[in-house]
């Protein structure tokens, strides 16, 4: 029930134009705005993190594909007898050959994960040896005269992301 005094105060505030929010209303509205701001900041931070991961992976895939393109162009110019090997066996960390123009080409993966062509770095952070040599039946081989295919697998670490791309190249007869 409204008392005469309460009715009078309400009428006075309406007449004089004095209106406002109570302390409780202010506290509730500030709390709600804080919760909404926290959710919005969380969503924006998650989106930024996702964009960084996607752009890092895209850049990594681009670099690996560029390297594979260079390698494919070179491999298309070799035949098994042009493969060079040390100690009688082909190795998974190195591809060495002379191309059709008698250029000496060597691809290597160092212990530090650097993949290079004739000393020029093409990729960093390559996690494993990239080459597997295969015969006509796709069995692994280390004998130069049996090589018909070269499998290349790049497992590259970019930031905290691993990118793996594989390809198979046919060696000319």
Provide an overview of this structure.
The protein is rod-shaped. It has 173 residues and is an alpha+beta fold. The chain has one domain (30-170). 13% of the residues are buried. The protein starts with a helix and ends with a strand. The chain has helices at 4-16, 23-75, and strands at residues 83-84, 94-98, 104-109, 115-117, 120-123, 131-134, 149-158, 161-170. It is built from two helices and eight strands, in the order ααββββββββ.
- Let me know the largest β-sheet: 5 strands, antiparallel
- Compressed to H and E, one letter per element, the order equals HHEEEEEEEE
What share of the residues lie within helices?
25-40%
The shape, in one word, is: rod-shaped
The secondary-structure class comes to alpha+beta
Number of domains as seen in the coordinates: 1
* Strand order across the largest sheet: 1-2-3-4-5
Report strand %: 25-35%
What is the tally of helical segments? Answer: 2
Cα-atom radius of gyration? 34 Å
Query: What is the number of beta strands?
Result: 8
Average pLDDT metric: 85
End-to-end separation in angstroms reads: 104 Å
Low-confidence stretches: none
């Amino acid at each position: 029930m409204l008392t005469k005094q309460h009715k009078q105060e309400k009428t006075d505030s309406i007449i004089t134009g004095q209106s406002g929010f109570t302390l409780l209303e202010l506290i509730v509205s500030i709390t709600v705005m804080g919760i909404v701001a926290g959710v919005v900041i969380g969503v924006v931070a998650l989106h930024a993190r996702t964009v960084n991961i996607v752009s890092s992976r895209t850049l990594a895939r681009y670099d690996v594909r560029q390297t594979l393109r260079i390698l494919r162009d070179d491999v298309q110019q070799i035949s098994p007898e042009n493969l060079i090997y040390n100690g009688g066996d082909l190795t998974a960390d190195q591809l060495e050959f002379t191309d059709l123009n008698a250029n000496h080409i060597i691809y290597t993966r160092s212990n530090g994960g650097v993949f290079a062509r004739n000393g020029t770095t093409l990729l960093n952070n390559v996690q494993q040896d990239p080459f597997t040599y295969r015969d006509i039946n796709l069995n692994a081989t280390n004998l130069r005269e049996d090589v018909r295919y070269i499998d290349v697998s790049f497992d590259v670490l970019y930031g905290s992301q691993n990118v793996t791309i594989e390809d198979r190249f046919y060696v000319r007869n």
